[in-house]
Design brief:
- The chain is an alpha+beta fold.
- The protein has a single domain, classed as Aminopeptidase.
- It is 30% helix and 40% strand.
- It contains four helices and seven strands, in the order E-H-H-E-E-E-H-E-H-E-E.
- It has a seven-stranded mixed sheet with strand order 1-2-3-4-5-7-6, with helices on both faces.
- Helix 3 links the parallel strand 4 and strand 5.
- It is globular, with a radius of gyration of 14 Å.
- The model has no long low-confidence stretch (mean pLDDT 97).
- It binds coenzyme A.
- The site of coenzyme A has 19 residues, from helix 1, strand 4, helix 3, strand 5 and helix 4.
């Protein structure tokens, strides 16, 4: 297993978009629009690979000079619960620290709250609906 940065527009990026579509959008009847994907050229894109195969991913979007928002965290269905998500999250936090950021926030799906809590994230605020499912804002100081 190797966690690494992904270049926007690369073959690995295409794999990342396909994984995110399959795991996060298709089950909700949603897709990506091109503007959304183009805007990701500014983001920090992260993938976990076994040789050429992408097993999981996330991305980080700058929301203020000291804060990144973690988005689009997903591990392929057959490999969930084996520690891959935790490794990706830890890699994302290390990149964020290395680049001088002080905090990571996210809109966490209610079903994933326990996963983020295990890595030290705390819920702030009330439940809200996004992409038609319940979410909470979570944050962690790095
Ligand atoms: C949420 C997700 C990214 C977690 O990745 P994962 O590789 O399955 O998680 P890990 O195996 O690294 O789990 C790390 C720890 O969190 C726990 N955990 C994982 N998913 C959990 C969940 N949904 N609820 C509660 N705890 C969870 C694990 O039991 C493990 O605990 P441990 O350290 O005590 O053993 C993955 O399950 C996934 O892609 N889910 C579907 C898409 C999704 O919901 N993405 C999040 C959008 S906000």
């Amino acid at each position: 297993m190797a966690v690494k940065l992904i270049d926007h527009g690369s073959e690995d990026y295409k794999k990342m978009v396909a994984l995110r579509f399959a795991l996060l959008r298709k089950p909700l009847g949603l897709s990506f629009d091109q503007d959304e994907l183009d805007a990701e050229s500014k983001d920090i894109l992260i993938g976990c690979f076994d040789d050429e195969k992408l097993e999981g991913c996330c991305l980080l979007t700058k929301t203020s000079p000291d804060t990144l928002r973690l988005r689009q965290m997903a591990v392929i269905s057959g490999l969930q619960g084996k520690g891959i998500g935790k490794v990706i999250l830890s890699f994302a936090e290390n990149i964020a620290r290395d680049r001088g950021f002080k905090k990571i926030i996210m809109h966490a799906r209610k079903t994933a709250i326990g996963f983020y809590e295990k890595s030290g994230y705390k819920i702030i605020g009330n439940e809200f609906s996004e992409v038609s499912i319940p979410h909470f804002v979570m944050e962690k100081n790095l």
